[in-house]
Amino acid sequence: MTNSDAAAGGVRNFDALIVGAGFSGIYLLHRLRNLGFSCLVVEAADDIGGTWYWNRYPGARCDIQSMIYSYSFSEELEQEWEWPSRFATQPEILEYAEHVVERFDLRRDMQFNTRVTDATFDDAANRWAIDTELGDRFSVQYLVMATGCLSTPRRPTFKGLDSFEGDWYHTGYWPHEAVDFSGKTVGIIGTGSSAIQSIPVIAAEADQLTVFQRTPNFSIPAWNEPLTPEAAQRWMDDYPAIRQKARESTGGDIYFSNPRPMAEYSEDEARAVLEQRWNDGAFNYQSAFGDMLSNPETNRFASEYVHEKIRQRVDNPAVAELLCPKQHPVGTKRLCVDTNYYETYNRNNVALVDISNDSIDEITPKGLRVGATEYEFDALVFATGFDAMTGALTAVHMTGRDGVVLKEKWIDGPRTYLGIAVAGFPNMFAITGPGSPSVLSNMLVSIEQHVDWTVDCIAYLRDHGLDCIEPTMAAEDNWVEHVNETADATLYPLANSWYMGDNIPGKLRIFTPYVGGVGVYRKKCDEVAANGYEGFALGG
Ligand code: NA7
């Protein structure tokens, strides 16, 4: 059926509708189709890739090592694919996703340029009725939201934006055509991960770059380098053990998570541990000590160690001081991983403007104004982040049992059972949803675990002649309490972060992901399934 048939009122039936053609949607389709379920992936963009389709900003790169930021479900795939460097660039990751889609012939069950607007559960039929922006209508038994955690960019709402005479961009929906900043004066707003990756690249191209920083962030060097065939081979030879280690770990990675608290080390030893972690780079730093994210003293020591590194790297002491994050413990806002970020401030075409005590009052035709100072730019880059974790789920007007709307149910914060299912919303699964490890982990590990669990669950229902599954309210309440208690035992709530929903005006302050670790979480999910889907009501 074509879109015009659909507009004429036709309804298409599937066992499952998968919303999103990122890494979750791709793997879901592969698994569900192999088990004989009829399914369709619908995707708002005009091609696959999800987060990696949209985030094309200069310098966009994964901060998890490519050899492990990849699917593990196919041995042939993981043995054949060649990653050119330790940390893959956005185009390389997209190329990999395209290869997977072609290799497993998935494109024929994908429909692009299709944004789901409404989803309504029909109690009598135990099915979801789905509507899209262009008028498609679907009736499906299972609705799987593979909509991503960082997929709803915060559109800039600055006063006067429409009056700006130059070009402006948001890192989260960067244009497909090349953007050339050469000869231009550019202003960038934000110093999160996206900005920290793009600033060195834009600075190398633009005439002049001015960075507007509200809160400095901790960034650890990536020490990115080409992946030699010998190094890649060592990974491949050991893949089964490496993947297993990642699945059982805290963060879905293979870094050594040191269980020992800092107090067990002398000061010199502790510095040596941090130096080693700094030299290994990336997220290694976060797991230097067992109490890094729970003991303020340990965290302060590790934070000040990063300050020292910043002061060594940045020539101008006043600029270095502004770049030292002192407002939050290291690791409590997502750690950034960079290539030459701090060194970029030593260039004579880069300026840092501290707006921690001011705000951008308005965008003007020629640039922007902070208090009485006006800055002129040819182009503006907004690296202002996302409505993380819940944004893409609540963007769909989703109505469950008894007319309850998801966005309204979550008015006091997201409530899920295991981060995957919601009471009152039967037969709906959220891949890496709020209340699961998701953004605190290597997403590929969490995605594979959630997809496998969901698909196994759907197959279980079919094999047992059941057609409906829904968490009980009690199971959901207990899980939410557990997620909150676990977070409250850490330093995470001390930071104003998108983990806490702080970046979205009006969003309730609550720690959204599950901090218990992917290994612990996987065991819990497996137990639930082994006990006949404990905490769920099954029907049919
Ligand atoms: P982030 O990490 O949310 O960073 C957004 C940045 O934009 C951050 O520095 C914000 O400052 C800043 N911001 C947001 N609104 C404003 C206004 N109004 N004025 C000035 N500055 C502002 O988003 P990213 O895209 O960098 O990274 C998101 C994740 O994607 C990342 O963690 C990786 O997992 C991949 P603030 O800190 O709020 O003071």
pLDDT averaged over residues: 96
Distance between the terminal alpha carbons, to the nearest Å? 30 Å
Number of strands: 20
Main beta-sheet strand count, sense and barrel state = 8 strands, mixed
| Global shape | globular
What small ligands are held by the chains?
Answer: ligand NA7
The gyration radius over C-alpha positions equals 23 Å
Number of helices: 17
Q: Which SSEs are present, and which pair or pack?
A:
Layout lengths: L2 H5 L4 E8 L3 H12 L4 E4 L8 H4 L20 H6 L9 H14 L6 E2 L4 E7 L4 E6 L4 E9 L21 E4 L14 E5 L3 H13 L2 E6 L5 E3 L7 H9 L1 H10 L18 H14 L15 H18 L3 H7 L12 E3 L2 H4 L5 E5 L7 E2 L3 E4 L2 E4 L2 E4 L8 H4 L2 E3 L6 H4 L18 E3 L12 H21 L4 E4 L1 H16 L29 H13 L5 E4 L1
Parallel strand pairs: 1-2, 1-6, 2-3, 4-17, 6-18, 7-16, 8-9, 8-16, 9-12, 10-11
Antiparallel strand pairs: 4-5, 5-6, 13-14, 14-15, 19-20
Helix pairs in contact: 2-15, 10-11, 15-17
The structure holds ligand NA7.
